Structure prediction request, 285 residues.
Amino acid sequence: MERILLAAATDYLASWHLGVVLVVFFIWAVLGGHLLRRAVQPLVPRRKAAANRCYLAAFLATVAGAIGSSVVLVVAIDVLHRMLGQVATVQWLAPLLAAIGFVALTYVVLYASFDLSAAVALGVWLRCFGPPLALTVALGAPTALYTYSSRHRLLAEQHSLVRLRFIYTGLQTYGAGGTPRSLERMLDDNVLRKEDLQCRTGTDRHIDYFYLYSELDDRDPNRGTRLLACDFAENHGGRGRGALFADGKTRWCSAAEFSELLRRDENRAFALALKRAEEPSPKGQ
Prediction:
């Protein structure tokens, strides 16, 4: 469980953020204890508003909220990815659900620690945890969301390169002169599975990669730059594409780098076929 929570945390936090989180955690617990004592002193008997009791309640509430919200984050990321499959939606919705979990758990701990009505306990929570939570969200949310987006862009790029390598491995299973002329043929021959040809980011296409038939020739002097297959442009929002070359190597290329590859003499046929494949279909077809 610890590894799962850490994996989810590192989706949103760079390595240097973890130390900052620990410092903020203890500052929050101490500040929360101080604010909690000030909030409950007029409401409960003196012994129930003792400093040690207030600091302990604030610390336990913070721990419960941190652990509980982490679990909510893990479950939310998994469920939302399965239901929606859209990184852009998951990246803000999952932390929002985790924040709601944090609020609920810290409130329950404070409510259970003092003999207060639900409404009064909510007011105490707002005075105790409201300001630190608002400050943490204001300072941490932009960085966390940027880190999450960056990590998932990198994962999507690596995923595409793995899929392209699957294509090359599949091509090698055919003998000389038997190279398939389409990826559909490789699916029909059970050389590849449908999921092997689908991009992590998801598109409306049946197959998310473009392939142009070409016999593999070890004597080809341009094997290292001749394109065999690539991402469709929409797979990564036009930022770039994964490319598979005739020597079996894969590389992530920016949009500019890929355009340069298409201008090479050995890729003229590939460039023309890719352009045709990416042209929008006429309406009604």
Q: What stands out?
A: Helices lie at 2-12, 15-40, 51-83, 87-113, 118-172, 183-188, 255-262, 268-278. Residues 2-154 form one domain. The radius of gyration is 27 Å.
